[in-house]
Design goal:
heterodimer, A: 494 residues, 6-stranded mixed β-sheet, globular, B: mainly alpha, 73% helix, ABC transporter permease (chain B), membrane (chain B), transmembrane (chain B), transmembrane helix (chain B)
Chain lengths: 494, 333
């Protein structure tokens, strides 16, 4: 048995008497990709912040190449050869790609002048080595979210660390960029580095990981080789109980068209997009990142001011929706892909967030009815099983899955008939995902219409009755549930 | 309702003394200050002195309440001091017996003058708000421009001269009293109660917090962000107009240089009261305490015979301390 590159044992951490991590352990071999799995609140983040020296441990040991280490700051961890690619991006928008990569350690010339030529060259070499096609002199603010993510990855790798931690690195990436990332990961593995890979996307884990560790409720529950593990087995370990099925689907599409989009165009973004969704149907819009799926939902919901043509029909009648307010009044609801950016007001309570889109229904004239508001929050918390000690807690303290259910609760309060969902399960753990699928399915089964944008192909195949594939702002094709396969969708989308 | 939400997250539920200090720090500081002043000076707790403090706080308090609306919605209003002067001058010109400063046909009834003064303030606010909401210009810049423009308009309107000899009816809002309580205190209390109701109990209040907390989420949720932005500036402008008239009424004449730098004390009261300049978090009760704290401090230092220059230094220390307290609170969350 070869020596471990990195080893953590018995890590413990409590916050004010509440144990966030009871037994964190992980053994990483050189030249391998090790998946760290667990639901929200399983203790992964605490584990990683202890490893990186962001938080102090209460107990336990960490060894790097056999030597015991205890970092007081991420800087020390980095110096010792452990780097992390964080889930939340922190680019400096008004600086170039190269400046961001070499931030704080810019190559200097005489009198402390920054050697830009040298820096750009070094950045170019790094990006080439990773296979990322991004010009090093481009401003960060001119990049897409996916490109920013790739730059962050390049930055972390530029430290020449031996242990690289990736925390949900693909959450903002499309298929194509994700493939680039996986190729880079394979190269790093071949160079003998160890990679700790955290992701909620099981298909990714099965694709790139060699071994796994699962945490649940703050403790290690299992580890081993990926080759000995099935998808069901992994889910069961993460959730702690057998799941009947990953996807829940009980709806039957009816005949009546509820939402029809005809010839929709937006300046530079969409060209002549047409599709129809039926009563009781879950319709998926599938496509690569940037293909125009989100832009379609925005246009339907009155969030786009650059619509150049096209008609939207609701229940057969043409409508002009110029603002979200009008959209809501017509029975539409939009769960945006960016939960923190445009879904929630993080500084406010669960209750205030649930009430936000339905204030009219919860007030008498200009006055809010606190009684109705409380009642509405209670109903939604029960209906969606939102786990929160009180509806008065700040929504920022909830897990990703529970936050997403708060967003859904906000919209269900407006009693929509058509639900537009943009990446509804992004950053949500397996257990909460299943609950969200159940909510979608129940809504459609009750006569509602769901239009879902998703980049996760299993989700599209598992939930959709029909898939409309979008490519470069146009409809590239339409596939029914029976004919839909991963190959067919990817082929149409790329 | 908003009260507790704004005050803290789950980490603050437990009765940890340090958390309590963070949460109620300003209230505690206020109470301690009052106790100390009462101990060192017999006059401090006299009814006369308390009413005096409240009267002196009323104008800054009213400006600070308007400022609270703007800051909660992620804006700032630097123009209130100049609007104080402009609204005061215009209203006074309708309610003066001085033949040189009078508008033709005057003096008009006090009620009309007051309505016009409120309208002038609201109009200044509407211009601020419209530019901010429609053209997305940062409110710092727009209201900085208004700070200059409104002062200029006041000087132009009054030809640089004060408007003296205001009618008794108009002066009542500065010098009158109800059941022994000075009129400025009555007005201040009324403004506070209405503002408290609007921010905590009305639909519009929820919209203000939502727009300040996350304008994108508010837009997607069907809230008209431009309307809310416009409205908070109109509220701030109208309250500045009210404060300007109270100031003129108290002194008996309206001055073109009235209200200079008043925006700074108003912002200080809001910040000391725990409202975040980032928007979406804060309470109007905090602003009330912040304004009272400044008022009591000035009064107490006066009673103790401390030079007024020191008062400014102490106010500066207080502002920074309040913000540091707030920062440590948000880090915990």
């Amino acid at each position: 048995m070869t020596a471990a590159l990195f080893e953590a044992e018995g890590l413990k951490k409590s916050f004010g008497g509440v144990a966030a991590l009871r037994d964190g352990r992980l053994r990483l071999m050189p030249g391998s990709v090790h998946a760290l799995c667990g639901g929200n609140g399983a203790g992964k983040s605490t584990f990683l912040s202890i490893v990186m020296g962001i938080q102090e441990r209460d107990a336990g040991t960490i060894r790097l190449e056999g030597r015991e280490v205890r970092f007081a700051s991420p800087r020390e961890a980095l110096a010792a050869g452990i780097s992390i690619i964080e889930q939340e991006l922190s680019p400096i928008p008004a600086m170039t790609v190269a400046e961001n990569i070499f931030l704080g350690r810019e190559p200097l010339r005489a009198f402390g002048r920054v050697d830009f030529a040298h820096m750009n060259r070094a950045a170019q070499e790094l990006l080439d080595r990773l296979g990322f096609a991004i010009p090093p002199d481009r401003m960060m603010m001119d990049l897409t979210v996916a490109q920013v993510q790739l730059v962050e990855i390049a930055k972390a790798l530029s430290h020449e660390a031996r242990v690289i931690i990736m925390d949900e690195p693909t959450s903002a990436l499309g298929e194509h960029e994700a493939d680039q990332l996986f190729a880079a990961v394979a190269r790093l593995r071949a160079e003998g580095k160890g990679i700790i890979y955290v992701s909620h996307r099981l298909s990714e884990i099965f694709r790139i990981a060699d071994s796994y560790t699962v945490f649940r409720d703050g403790a290690h529950v299992g580890s081993g080789a990926m080759a000995d593990l099935t998808r069901e087995g992994l889910i069961q370990m993460i959730v702690g109980r057998p799941l009947a099925e990953e996807f829940v689907k009980a709806n039957r599409p009816g005949g009546e068209v509820t939402l029809a989009v005809e010839g929709l165009s937006r300046a530079r973004l969409l060209r002549d997009v047409s599709f129809a969704a039926h009563r009781g149907e879950i319709l998926a819009l599938y496509g690569l990142m940037g293909a125009g799926r989100t832009e379609i939902l925005e246009a339907v919901f009155g969030l786009a001011d650059d619509v150049t043509g096209g008609t939207v029909r609701l229940h057969g009648a043409p409508v002009r929706i110029r603002s979200p307010r009008e959209a809501i009044a017509r029975g539409l609801a939009l769960v945006t892909e960016d939960r923190k950016g445009s879904g929630l007001v993080l500084s406010q309570s669960v209750r205030a967030n649930i009430a936000m889109a339905g204030l009219e229904g919860l007030s008498l004239g200009p006055a809010m009815s606190v009684r109705r508001e409380k009642e509405a929050a209670r109903r939604m918390i029960e209906m969606f099983g939102i786990r929160t000690a009180s509806d008065q807690l700040d929504v920022s303290g909830l897990s990703g899955g529970n936050q997403q259910k708060v967003v859904l609760g906000k919209w269900f309060l407006t009693e929509p008939r058509i639900l537009l969902l943009d990446e509804p399960t992004r950053g949500v753990d397996v257990g909460a995902k299943r609950e969200i699928y159940r909510i979608m399915s129940d809504f459609a089964a009750g006569g509602g219409t769901v239009v879902m944008v998703s980049s996760e192909i299993e989700e599209v195949l598992g939930m959709a009755d029909r898939v409309v594939v979008i490519r470069d702002g146009r409809v590239a094709g339409e596939v029914g549930r029976a004919e839909a396969t991963a190959e067919a969708l990817v082929h149409l989308a790329a | 309702m908003q009260e507790r939400v704004a005050a803290g997250g789950p980490a603050l539920r437990r009765a940890d003394p340090r958390d309590l200090a963070r949460r109620y720090g300003i209230l505690i500081a206020f109470a301690v200050l009052c106790v100390v002043l009462a101990l060192v000076n017999d006059n401090f707790l006299s009814t006369r002195n308390i009413l005096n403090v409240l009267r002196q706080t009323a104008i800054n308090g009213i400006l600070a309440i308007g400022m609270t609306f703007v800051i909660l919605a992620r804006g700032i209003d630097l123009s209130v001091g100049s609007v104080v002067a402009l609204a005061g001058i215009v209203a006074a010109s309708l309610a003066t017996t001085s033949s040189t400063a009078m508008v033709a046909g005057g003096p008009y009834p006090a009620a009309l003058a007051i309505l016009v003064g409120l309208a002038v303030g609201a109009a200044c606010g509407a211009v601020n708000g419209a530019i901010v909401a429609r053209f997305n210009v940062p409110s710092f810049v727009v209201t900085l421009a208004m700070l200059s423009a409104a002062r200029g308009l006041a000087l132009l309107y009054a030809e640089g001269r004060p408007v003296p000899a205001l009618t008794e009816g108009f002066r009542a809002m500065g010098t009158g009293s109800v059941l022994g309580v000075p009129m400025p205190v009555v007005i201040f209390a009324g403004v506070f109660l209405v503002a408290w109701w609007v921010l905590n109990q009305s639909r519009f209040g929820r919209q203000v917090y939502a727009v300040g907390g996350n304008p994108h989420a508010a837009t997607v949720s069907g809230i008209s962000v431009p309307f809310v932005r416009l409205s908070v500036f109109v509220i701030s402008g109208a309250l500045a107009g009210l404060a300007g008239m109270m100031l003129a009424a108290r002194t008996g004449s309206a001055l073109t240089q009235a209200g200079i730098a008043y925006e700074l004390d108003a912002i200080a009261a809001v910040v000391i009261g725990g409202t975040s300049l980032a928007g979406g978090v804060g309470r109007v009760t905090g602003t009330l305490i912040g304004a009272l704290l400044i008022g009591v401090m000035n009064n107490g230092l006066d009673l103790m015979g401390v030079e007024s220059y020191y008062q400014q230094v102490i106010k500066g220390v207080l502002i920074v301390a309040a913000v540091m307290l707030d920062q440590s609170r948000s880090r915990r969350d």
